[in-house]
Amino acid sequence: MSDSTSLTEQLEATQQRAIADFSQAKNLKELDALRTQYLGKKGVLTDVLKGVGRLAPAERPLIGQQVNSVKQALNEALGTATEQLQQQERQQRIEAERLDISLPARRQSTGARHPIQQGLDEISDIFSRMGFTIAQGPEMEDEFHNFDALNIPPEHPARAMHDTFFLQSDDDVSRLLRTHTSPVQIRAMLKHIKANGESPLAVVAPGRVFRCDHDVTHSPMFHQVEVFKVGEDVSMAQLKGVLQYFLSSYFNQDLPIRLRPSYFPFTEPSAEVDMGCVMCQGKGCRVCKNTGWLEVLGSGMIHPNVLKSVGLDSERWSGFAFGLGVERLVMLKYGIPDLRLFFENDARFLRRIGA
Ligand code: DAH
């Protein structure tokens, strides 16, 4: 067997082996290793070619041609194998990254305002539509704003009735958690006079209040809305008109109201306000204790001493004021039977009322 014949055979054998190996590569990395193994500088083909040097010059061109055709065949086989492996790897990736778009999405539950917050907002909105300005005061108050300026002097029995939470303070000002939103009257009037001088104002003040009282119908923290108007010709008739409009709007129905004489230190005269029972339309039921009426808030004409405490001349200025309990109004509006439901944070209850 001549050298060239054995070289030819070696080349053929190499081609066959390489093509077989290429087609069995499991991935592109393996294929690349095989490419180096056969076609690389130190590869099998290079080894075979070393034999060419030993051939007679006349035999070399033929072998040269054969080498080229082997190289071409290997490159083609490599190309085919590469394509197949790429295709295969793409397929595997698609399988691995597969998304089941028919799976139902996980629901995002949206939050809702707490029923009390909703009540505070609704009530404030009705008054702002009537031209009242929304004001807020601090929950930590002092005796001047919570009591003295509201015509409740130190020995007044109303102080004891307020079940006040007193706070420790570093100075000689006695601090407390406000027992009602009425102190916002004082703060709003002082601020208004400072900014605008003596002039009419109408304010709605929603907020949280505190009393050291806790039973089935009382919570130590609850909510009130204080409403007042000061001007040169403010009358009790205006008070009644505003109340009538407010209660009918809030309960979405025409409601009769009545004013009964009452007593509050910060108003004179004072009146307790009743509205027709929203549960039985005045026919008499358990909620209104068969009277057809529900007591909903306290009101009156601002006491001259209160006006004086902010420096207003009570001969010239007059005003009306009222304060209402938000929990009670929300309970009546939605027929909520128990005050404690507001504070237990049971999501089923909150979701039913909240919006
Ligand atoms: N501040 C009173 C309370 O918390 C409620 C109240 C009654 C406010 C009569 C008023 C009013 O403005 O005129 O019990």
What does this structure look like?
The protein has 2 domains: 3-96; 115-353, Bira Bifunctional Protein, Domain 2 (BirA Bifunctional Protein, domain 2). The chain is built from 12 helices and 10 strands. The protein has helices at residues 3-24, 28-39, 44-50, 60-96, 115-129, 143-146, 157-161, 183-196, 236-251, 304-309, 326-334, 347-353; strands spanning 133-134, 140-142, 166-167, 175-177, 201-210, 221-231, 257-264, 267-276, 293-302, 318-325. The strands form 2 sheets. The chain has a 7-stranded mixed β-sheet with strand order 1-5-6-10-9-8-7, sandwiched between helices. Strands 2-4-3 form a 3-stranded antiparallel β-sheet. α1 (3-24) runs antiparallel to α2, α1 runs parallel beside α4 (60-96) and α2 runs antiparallel to α4. The chain is rod-shaped. The protein binds 3,4-dihydroxyphenylalanine.
